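Holo prediction — NAP.
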Amino acid sequence: MTEADPILRPSGRRAVLIDGKAAAAQIDAAVRAGALELAAALGRPPCLAVVLAGEDPASQVYVRNKVRRTERAAMTSVEHRLPADISQDALMALIDRLNADEGVDGILVQLPLPAGLDASAVVQAIDPAKDVDGLTAASAGALVLGAPGLRPCTPSGCVYLARRALGDLTGRHVVVIGRSILVGKPAALLFLEADCTVTLAHSRTRDLPALARQADILVAAAGRPGMVKADWIKPGAAVIDVGINRVEGPDRTSRLTGDVDFEPALDAAGFITPAPGGVGPMTIAMLLVNTLRAAARRAGLPLPSAVADLGAD
Ligand code: NAP
């Protein structure tokens, strides 16, 4: 990186925070405008079906937030709350019904499913045209092929925040730490789609700190609290912290923290997402974008300009 590099942090400055809450609020507002426009054409608002099985407290909170944000964005949300002991067959039958329901544009199955259920079979049964989480084999294949399709939400949020901080990402070296199906792997492919040069790291990567120090954009998605130290960060780089980890403090109260050792990182990075408050809010924003996109595509209509103009692809 040279002095002329726009992501080089001016000396003596702390990193600029990439505000995921503000970005998500802007996207939510654009989706709302787009949903109202689309509703006029469809004769009904775009509709997201949310499937929640069991009583997992974290899942209940996630679903509540998703439903609230969907409704605030002028879309309909239909919740299907199921007992933890629901059978695989009953769950698959529900997915079949939602696939066939013309009034449903997006289907979201809240994971993890209760023990004993085959989550993969349930997710893979979702019609790819309604796969707003972007997790079916068809959606993953479209991502690899660079074909149109619904992209996974959290990784899309990472790319959106990197663009918000840096503008055009062409030629940037991105190091993604974590290779999960949900986050790391699709994040690497999405940054590749944005013409970045991508390195995908994982638990078997050798000398990860040295590799991370080469990144213009460092994406931490390992689920290891505070793993990324300040001296892993190239001065001035953009750091996207995907981690959401619950840790216990000295007073035995628990709090959420990211994968980056945040305070010291502020003196190394040029831009950094806080965690929580960075990538987290973006996941639901991208879910709303995908629901709108699914509704438009299914009706053969273009994505409303309020959202298309955001460049949230
Ligand atoms: P995951 O399925 O557990 O995958 C973790 C990945 O990190 C694996 O590929 C693993 O490598 C790698 N890894 C683990 N320890 C490592 C180490 N010490 N060095 C290098 N790589 C290491 O987790 P995930 O579902 O991808 O989630 C990752 C984090 O993001 C979690 O904190 C999760 O809560 C958070 N998350 C946040 C959002 C959001 O909305 N912000 C959404 C989803 C997930 P191997 O493959 O070699 O085991």
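READOUT: Residues 154, 177-180, 182-184, 201-205, 208, 221-224, 227, 242-245, 279-280, 283 surround NAP (CB under 6 Å).
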